[in-house]
Amino acid sequence: MTAAAQGAGSPACTALSTVLANVGTIGNKAYSGTVEQADVDRAFGGTALAGVPADAMPYVEAVKVVAEKFPGRDAVAASTLFMDWDPAYNGLAATVTKVCS
């Protein structure tokens, strides 16, 4: 993992934790096939990534690539993406832990 530790109270930790929470919502909704484009936009669009450190962006981008495929898929179709989703999500979660330490 290349992201640098910045501390639990850092703006980078806050920004990444928010991204992780929004991404977690996508993952949870994917299991029932209810991910909407608005969920993806909330996680990655507009100012959602403001404050995310550059060294954490590869992990955010890895999750985004998969997340963008969920809207419009039912639970069965979404399940075909979990093999890609799980390592990307876990990488982001580990990065948040590192940045927030």
Description:
This protein is mostly helical and 101 residues long. Helix content is 61%, strand content 0%. The chain has helices at 11-30, 37-44, 57-67, 75-79, 82-99. The two termini are 13 Å apart. The model has no long low-confidence stretch (mean pLDDT 95).
Please give a handful of descriptors for the protein shown.
elongated; 61% helix; 5 helices; mainly alpha; 101 residues
Short summary:
The protein has helices spanning 11-30, 37-44, 57-67, 75-79, 82-99. It is mainly α and 101 residues long.
Q: Topology, please?
A:
Blueprint: H1 11-30, H2 37-44, H3 57-67, H4 75-79, H5 82-99
What value does the average pLDDT take? 95
Strand composition percent: under 5%
Tally of DSSP helical segments: 5
Please state the structural category.
mainly alpha
Helix content: 55-70%
Roughly how many Å apart are the termini?
13 Å
Gyration radius (Cα, Å) is 13 Å
- Spans of at least 5 consecutive residues whose pLDDT stays below 50 are none
Tell me the quaternary state: single chain
The backbone outline, from C-alpha atoms, is elongated
Number of strands: 0
Order of helices and strands: HHHHH
Report on the biggest sheet.
none
